Amino acid sequence: MDNCEVLKFFPEPVFKYNFKNSAKYNPKLSDYIYELYKKDSTGINRSNRGGWHSKNFELNDTNSIQHKFAMDLQKYILNTFQGLGWKTESQNIRIKEMWAIINKKEDFNVVHTHPNAYLSAAYYVKAPKECGNFQVENLNIARRHYYPVIANKNEFNSQVLGIEVKEGDLLIFPGYLPHKVAKNNSNEDRIVISFNVDVK
Predict the structure, then answer these.
(1) Which residues pair with 98 in a beta bridge?
(2) Domain 15-199 has CATH 3.40.1710.10
(3) Most buried by CB count within 10 Å: which residue of 40, 112, 123, 132?
(4) C-alpha closest to that of 158 among 172, 144, 146, 148
(5) pLDDT digits (tens, 9 = 90+) for 97-126
(6) Is the pLDDT of residue 81 over 90?
């Protein structure tokens, strides 16, 4: 109708960046992650179903590729804070922890949140076609249980929305946002680095 104004309240953001130095970092990050995998192929269990989840990276070694990568992420984290309208001046914004996940064919991650982080992130070191989209679930649980038949899918009635990803993509989002990873339908590894951000 001509006299209708649609007001959109409380949007939930995912900041999607193309990490500028991905071509430089990805081969070295991949080597580092596979080296961790060789040393500890069991890893740990979190949201991964199948796949391998590393222990937290050692970030204190200033000469290491993971430390240099973490330093290069700072401008993206700062931009996200500013985009959300959060205070950045005189704030000790830090990467609290960082880890890697390798998903092989058929592996996926179930829905989860990162409740002890202001921001969480996923960076794509290796992302072959059909390796599994990043998916966000609607925060409003009540609307999943009571709604009429949907004629046209749109942003107002969707329960889960996916983001197609490629190598070098960096997704940063609030830690409270429920997210998951679809099944890897490719025959190659999907390698992601995730991290949490807080203010010390």
Answers:
(1) 195
(2) no
(3) 123
(4) 144
(5) 999 999 999 999 999 999 999 999 999 999
(6) yes
Residue 143 CA, chain-centre distance (Å), reads 25
* Mean pLDDT in residue range 19-48: 97
Burial class (CB in 10 A: 0-12, 13-18, 19+), 144: exposed
Reported residue count of the chain is 200
Cα separation, 172 vs 175, whole angstroms: 9
Are the C-beta atoms of 186 and 167 separated by less than 8 Å? no
Q: Where are the domains of the chain?
A: 15-199
Q: Is the dihedral of CA 91, 15, 112, 195 positive or negative?
A: negative
Contact 168, 113 (CB under 8 A): no
Q: Is the dihedral of CA 112, 75, 91, 200 positive or negative?
A: positive
